[in-house]
From TrEMBL:
Keywords per UniProt: Signal
Parts of the chain that traverse the membrane: none
Taxonomy of the source species: Bacteria, Bacillati, Actinomycetota, Actinomycetes, Kitasatosporales
Native source organism of the sequence: Streptomyces cyaneochromogenes
Keyword Transmembrane carried by entry: no
Name of the protein in question: Lipoprotein
Amino acid sequence: MHRRRRTALLLSVAIAAAPVLTACGNDAHPGAAAVVGGQRITVAQLENRVGEVRAAQRAAVPDESQYAQVIAKSGTLPRDVLHTMVLDQVLHRAARDAGVTVTRKEIQGMRGDLEEQVGGAKALEAAWLQQYGIPPQRLDENLRLQLEAQKLATSLGTDTGKPAFWNALSEASKKLDIDLNPRYGTWDVQKSSRADAKTPWVREVTAAGIQPTM
């Protein structure tokens, strides 16, 4: 029996460049990059995640001049990574409130479908790193996020581009009482995004030969 493949979604953290503020930290939460649901995302944790991306980029681009170009094009990486870390918790809270869960089998199925589309595991890892700044060790985590978004939208009888979906994320943002360190911007509760984000964070995978299939 033919299995219907899921339309692949992904987090786009293409956030507009903005000047990094010089504040040393949030006075109310020293050492925190953000506080989400009363839990700190520390600057050290954020730097570790950014380091994962940089290490993966360095391994993928051994040429010094090319690597310098990669760095130049991803100058907002710390803010982009923090955006994803916070949004992960927002979406997870919204999914939990809606009774949505994602299984390991579902993640593996989605990954298998995408690998088939792009030509294997390494090709998929390279595409996610190059286009979306997701290092290989975070790929399954990112796919879980995509599945949560899909299943949450389905449970609400809508899709990820409609107001009902975003309203659910907005409610989750309110419950989590998100507080960003000023150096990384602010969190827009209504949009469930950093305030300077210009592009939606969920969109169909249609670039670089990754085409949704039915």
